[in-house]
Specification:
The complex is a heterodimer of chains A (222) and B (581). With 222 residues, chain A is an alpha/beta fold. Chain A has seven helices and five strands, in the order H-H-E-H-E-H-E-H-E-E-H-H. Chain A folds into three domains: 31 residues, no CATH class; 135 residues, Rossmann fold, CATH 3.40.50; 29 residues. Chain A has a three-stranded parallel sheet with strand order 1-2-3. In chain A, strand 2, helix 4 and strand 3 form a beta-alpha-beta unit. The C terminus of chain A is likely disordered. In chain B, the strands form five sheets. Chain B has a five-stranded mixed sheet with strand order 1-2-5-4-3, covered by helices on one side. Chain B has a three-stranded antiparallel sheet with strand order 8-9-10. Chain B has a three-stranded antiparallel sheet with strand order 13-14-15. In chain B, helix 3 links the parallel strand 6 and strand 7. Classes of the chains: A alpha/beta (222), B alpha+beta (581).
Chain lengths: 222, 581
């Protein structure tokens, strides 16, 4: 039985150590959760290769309870967004997240997933997955080295250690309906932005030009 | 090399097509301009009578000031030699060109890409849909007057940034706070997304089978991916199944389309070097190599001896590491779940250690420069490479050879599966191990030698059955040949400078076009670069082997079982960063 499962300050007689532990619900819950963070087997781009290296023998993240990578999001706890999120891929990523059973965590691995990275200016690139999913840990690097990824995952474990079931969103009474799945339009459409989009595209043209770039779409239509 | 080949063919070609081929007159350009109505005739003659049977690359260039779009074709002979470049010009507002897909099926995806990104319609194309963006996307992004939501200026470095240093977050300048833009009057609530109906409609139906009709079997459509453990990334295959037999298969891509070419046309020439790393992110050194060759052709500079040797060593180490991953993932797809992969990754880590010592980064090396490499080899690195290539790698490759090659399951799954005949392989513009496994001994290192590959003793590995097993065998043997090359190179590498001239950030590249191609681990990796004499490329196109090798996938899978589609895809060895760019 691990040492850190005991509530600090509670004395357990030496002869019972290893057999009896006094702890709180939060502690044992977090201990179980942090020791079995199963990632979705899901790779996007360059970072996915480093993720594979981290899973392989030299770095071996199964040391931290993460060796079981599940191809199905239903069986996973962690969505490692490992690479550039493109607009074309975005609906699938949001669906994956929605399909994951709670509790679920998201790690943005690398510069692209965190903020667009070197490809931020691209027309098909989402500048950071945090526009759509709640991200728990950001890992810098392009790509992050396996050591950096391990550090990020350990940071996630520390974050889990400090959670309490009292204030976790997935134990609240209001049902979580998931994140609205983006739609392919002339550009990717976030359904949460529909009112804003309508508002801006229906402004008179001169105001739109003033506010810069609302009418920056190309002349030729498909 | 290509110049010599052209000089000998010029008179015959022009005589042959009297008036139909107009030699290029722009300075720095090569090849011929063809009228669209003559294109099919010229291409047929080139293929059937003159031996230019391999249509390597199809792309287009937007000449906005002249108001023309120019479609550029690179033809090669499958027996080796330099390129024959044909160009077809078409007005920008009504751009239509005859499709070459009926003649060269390998043009299918490339023409779709040109339609998608540059808006050139191809008359006679069987399936002209968007390929990298989605149906309904507004505009054709690679046109020079198309501006993305985060547009800041036409070329980098942006004047506003330097020297005053005005930096603002791009999100703050966009009313939506993100990387999106919509046409005026667009109403998202009324929008109906097109979806995949068009794709499902064109999927072929099975031939009605009178004997099985009473079974009332129904054809079903199955989607593999884009999130699927065996599609090697975010690749999607839509498969039409009759029972377990594949009736039709359509690859869907673009899920990792990172706008490499659009970004590259803004960047300065050198700024693109780290971006090429991220094309095929397993083989960054080979990508650097191809791009450096293309720009060096434009700059017309020579590379010092030592740098050439370093380049060859690095490119071959890359090939080793790529084939290790390729075979590992192929075995994964077959069900040898991660065990061979772990063996190979262990070896690959040793190669990555060398890359890290040499360039500072494990994967994204950014090591090549125009005219050499960025820095010399660190002390003692050759002493690290030698034991690997003389002892460890040959041993481990033999070891895995023993485990895998004669393995009953591997042979049963691979032999006779996903067959591509030599004629098909050439017609579909397949490249690399996919082409050679079909019995076509075409290796650019031999067929059109670049760098110093003509000095090394190595064999072009060829398979004869064109099936998955032969593609596996070709990769296995190519690893041994790469080791041979590295062994020769590390023993003969001279001392000397590693860069031609002083290191520079900004290059004045003379106007003109250049096509640099290398035999990348996945096949012919070509960079088509056009300079207009300024600091940024006017056009930058990547002829990506992973992209074009997918073209014959349908042909290889049709009639097979659904489980075989996965290993067939695995045997082509694609990397999505390069497929989608």
């Amino acid at each position: 039985m691990p040492e850190d499962l005991n509530t600090p300050g509670v004395e357990i007689p030496p002869e019972l150590r290893g057999t009896v532990t006094l702890t709180t619900i939060d502690r044992i819950y977090n201990w179980g959760r942090r020791s079995s963070v199963w990632p979705v087997m899901f790779g996007l781009a360059c970072c996915a290769i480093e993720m594979i290296c981290t899973a392989a023998s030299r770095f071996d993240f199964s040391r931290f309870g993460m060796e079981v990578m599940r191809p199905s999001p239903r069986q996973a706890d962690l969505l490692l967004v490992s690479g550039t999120v493109t607009k074309k891929m975005l609906p699938q990523i949001v669906r994956l997240y929605n399909q994951m059973a709670e509790p679920r965590y998201v790690v943005a691995m690398g510069a692209c997933a965190s903020g667009g990275g070197p490809f931020k200016e691209g027309y098909n690139v989402v500048p950071g997955i945090d526009r759509y999913l709640p991200v728990d840990v950001y890992i810098p690097g392009c790509p992050p080295t396996p050591q950096a990824l391990l550090n990020g995952l350990i940071t996630l474990q520390k974050k889990i250690d400090n959670q309490s079931i009292k204030d976790l969103s997935w134990y609240s009474k209001t049902p979580d309906n998931g994140i609205p799945v983006p739609v392919f339009g002339p550009d990717i459409i976030d359904p949460r932005q529909n009112a804003l989009i309508f508002d801006i595209t229906h402004r008179p043209v001169d105001i739109a030009v003033e506010s810069e770039s609302a009418e920056k779409t190309s002349g030729e239509e498909a | 090399m290509s110049d010599i080949a052209q000089a000998t063919t010029v008179p015959t070609l022009e005589e042959r097509f009297s008036g139909k081929l107009i030699p290029e007159t722009r300075s720095g350009y090569q090849g011929y301009i063809v009228k669209s109505e003559n294109l099919i005739e010229v291409a047929t003659t080139l293929r059937d009578e003159l031996g230019y049977d391999y249509l390597s690359s199809v792309t287009a260039v937007d000449y906005l000031p002249e108001d023309i779009l120019e479609v550029v074709y690179h033809f090669y002979k499958s027996t080796g030699g330099g390129a024959l470049v044909l160009k077809v010009q078409t007005p920008r507002n009504a751009s239509v060109v005859s499709s070459l897909t009926p003649l060269f099926p390998g043009a299918e995806f490339q023409e779709r890409e040109v339609w998608d990104l540059l808006g050139v319609r191809f008359d006679g194309h069987p399936d002209l849909r968007r390929i990298l963006t989605w149906e309904g996307f507004a505009g054709h992004p690679l046109r020079k007057d198309w501006k993305e939501p985060f547009y800041e200026g036409d070329v980098k470095p942006y004047d506003s940034r330097w020297p005053a240093g005005h930096i603002s977050r791009a999100e703050d300048n966009n009313p939506f706070g993100s990387n999106v833009q919509y046409p005026q009057g667009f109403d998202p609530a009324a929008w109906v997304a097109e979806g995949d109906d068009a794709l499902y409609r064109i999927m072929k139906k099975a031939e009605p089978d009178s004997e099985a009709e009473h079974l009332g079997s129904e054809q079903i459509i199955v989607n593999f991916g884009p999130q699927h453990p065996s599609t090697h990334g975010v690749f999607r295959m839509v498969v039409s199944l009759d029972g377990e037999t594949i009736v039709d298969l359509k690859p869907v891509m673009g899920y990792l389309h990172r706008n490499h070419e659009k970004i590259a046309e803004r960047n300065t020439f050198l700024m693109n070097m780290p971006f090429t790393d991220r094309l095929d992110y397993i083989c960054s050194m080979s990508n650097n190599f191809g791009y450096a060759l293309a720009v060096e052709k434009l700059l017309n500079i020579q590379v010092p001896e030592r740098a050439e040797y370093i380049r060859v060593i690095m490119a071959e180490l890359t090939r080793l590491s790529n084939h290790m991953i390729a075979i590992g993932t192929l075995l994964n797809d077959m069900g040898a779940y991660f065990t061979p992969m772990l063996y190979y990754l262990e070896e690959r880590e040793l190669i990555l250690d060398i890359f890290e010592a040499v360039s500072g980064s494990r994967m994204m090396c950014n090591y090549f420069r125009f005219g050499g490499v960025v820095r010399d080899l660190p002390d003692g690195i050759l002493e690290k490479i030698k034991p690997l290539v003389f002892d460890r790698f040959p041993r481990t490759i033999d070891e895995l050879d023993v485990y895998l090659t004669q393995n009953e399951v591997v042979r049963a799954r691979c032999e006779g599966v996903g067959v591509l005949t030599p004629d098909q392989a050439i017609a579909f513009s397949a490249a690399g191990p996919t082409l050679r496994a079909s019995g076509v001994p075409y290796d650019i290192r031999r067929a059109d030698p670049y760098s110093i590959y003509d000095r090394f003793d190595f064999d072009v590995v060829v398979g004869y059955h064109g099936d998955v097993y032969d593609r596996y065998l070709v990769r296995m043997e190519e690893m041994r040949q790469s080791i041979r090359i590295i062994q020769q190179a590390v023993n003969t590498i001279p001392e000397g400078p590693i860069l031609q001239g002083a290191p520079k950030y900004q290059f004045r590249v003379p106007a003109g076009e250049a096509y640099g191609r290398v035999e990348g681990p996945k096949g012919e990796l070509g960079f088509y670069v056009i300079s207009n004499g300024k600091g940024n490329p006017w056009r930058y196109h990547v002829r990506a082997p992973s992209f074009i090798n997918v073209t014959p996938l349908t042909e290889m899978c049709r009639g097979g079982k659904v489980a075989d589609a996965i290993i067939t895809l695995g045997s082509i060895d694609i990397v999505l960063g390069e497929t989608d760019r």
